[in-house]
Amino acid sequence: MIKKIELIKIFDIPIKLDLSWFIILAFITWTLASGYFPAKYPELDKFIYLIMGLFSALLLFASVLLHELSHALVARRNNIPIRGITLFIFGGVAEMDQEPPNARSEILMAAAGPLCSGILSFLFLLIGNLFTNLLPFTPIIGILQYCVFINMALMIFNLLPGLPLDGGRILRAIIWNYTGDIKKATYTTSRIGSALGVFLIIFGFFNIFSGNFIGGLWLALIGIFVKGAADTGYQQLLSGKLLEGIKISKIMTRNLVIVNDSITLDRLVDDYFLKHRYNSYPVVRNGMLIGIVSIHDVNEIPREDWNKINVSKILDSQIINLCLSPDDEATNAMSKMVKKGIGRIPVLDNGKLVGIVSRRDIMQIIKHKIDLRV
Ligand SMILES: [Zn+2]
Predict the structure, then answer these.
(1) Residue 95 — pLDDT band, cuts 50, 70, 90?
(2) Structural domains of the chain, count
C-alpha cells in the first residue's frame, strides 16, 4: 500500500506527501470557502470563495513546507542528517536520523521553524499592504491576510513549550544545558506536551459546544496528535532507560527453528508455520544465514504455486545488514525494530547464527522490570 508519495527534492532533501494531505487540502479549502471568507468578505461570488479557499490552502502548505525546510537546513548545517520532509494531516515533519549532538544545535534547529513562520507572516503583511495601496482587489487581499494570520498562528502554536512542538525542543535544550541530563529534560518536556495535548482537547470540545464546530474539532484533533506524540516519546525514553545495560545475549531466544532455503512453500507452511508459533524464520543455506522468511512473504504467492516455489525465492535478505551481535545493547535492537518496522532480528556471533531477538523478548523484559520495580 502506498502511503507516501515523493514529490521533489529541494536542496537534496526529499519532500514527501502523506496521502492524508489530500483530505486535509480539500477540508481546508471547503472550510475557508464556506465559512471563513464569506463571513469576512460578504457579497462575493461562490466560485470566488472556492478559488480563495484553494489558493489559501495551497499557500498554507507552502508555508508549512518552508517552516520544515528551515528546520532541515539548520539541522544539516549542524551535521544532523535529515531523511526527508513529510507533509501530512497536521502539517509537516522533518525526519531526523539522530538526536542533535548538543543543546546549542538543538535550540538553533528548533527555533528555525517558528522564526521562518514569523518572517513569512511579516512578508505576507508587506505584500498585502502593497496590494491594498496599488491594486485593492478583495480576493487577493483576503488570501494574503489569511496567510498573515495562519503563519502567525503557526509560529505561536509551535512555540508552545511541550514536546513534540518546537517550543518543547527549545525548552528541553535549555533544561539539558543546565542539568546536563537529556533524559530528565525529555521527561519534563514530554509531560508538558502531554498536558498541552489534554488542554487542547478540552479547549476544542469547549469550542464545539459553544458553536465553533470546525475550529473546535480541529483543536481537539491536534490535541490528540500532540498528546499521542508526547506519550510515545516518553514511553520510548522510559523503555530505553529500562533496557539500559542489558545485552542481547541475555534476552535472545537460543532454541532456533531454522528453515533450509531449498524447501518448497507448501512444506514451509505445513512443517513450520502450522507447527510452530512463530511468524518468521531464519533461513540458512549450507549452514549460513541468508535471510528471514515471514508469513507475509508467503501470502504474496498464490496458493497453487506453493509446491513449485522454494523459500530462497521469497526470503528477505536485507535483514542480513541489520543482524546484531550477542554483545550489542538491547536498546540497539529496539531502535532498529522501531525504525525499520520489523519484529525479529537474527543474532550472529562471528558470522554464525546463535539466536534471534524479537519485539516480544524486549517487551517481556520491560514488563518484568516494571512489575518487579527493578
Ligand atoms: Zn517546527
Answers:
(1) low
(2) 2
Q: Measure 245 CA to ligand 1 centroid, in angstroms.
A: 34
Question: What's the CA-to-centroid distance between 27 and ligand 1, angstroms?
Answer: 22
Output the CA 161–ligand 1 centroid distance in Å.
12
**Whether residues 232 and 292 fall in one domain:** no
C-alpha of residue 12 to centroid of ligand 1, in Å: 19
The CA 104 to ligand 1 mean position distance, Å, reads 16
Distance 167 CA to ligand 1 centre (A): 8
Dihedral of CA atoms 124, 128, 131, 132 in degrees, nearest 10, equals -170
Give the model confidence (pLDDT) of 319-331 as tens digits: 888 888 888 888 8
Place of cell 487542547: 200
Distance 95 CA to ligand 1 centre (A): 12
Q: What is the 73 CA–ligand 1 centroid distance (Å)?
A: 12
Ligand 1 centroid to Cα of residue 166, in Å, is 5
The two counts, helices (H) then strands (E), for the chain are: 14, 9
**Residue 301 structural domain:** 248-372
Q: Which amino acid is at 210?
A: S
Residue of 285, 288, 306 whose CA lies nearest to 297: 306
Is the same domain home to 258 and 163? no
What digits encode the pLDDT tens for the residues 4-13?
Answer: 777 777 777 7
CA distances from 28 to 55, 144, 234, 267, 339 (A): 10, 16, 32, 53, 32
- pTM score of the predicted model: 0.68
- Measured in Å, residue 115 CA sits from the centre of ligand 1 at 9
Identify whether the C-beta of residue 70 lies closer than 8 Å to the C-beta of residue 113: yes
* d(C-alpha 221, C-alpha 20), whole Å: 14
Instruction: Answer yes or no: do 236 and 309 share one domain.
Output: no
Angle at 322 between CA 320 and CA 327, to 5 degrees: 110
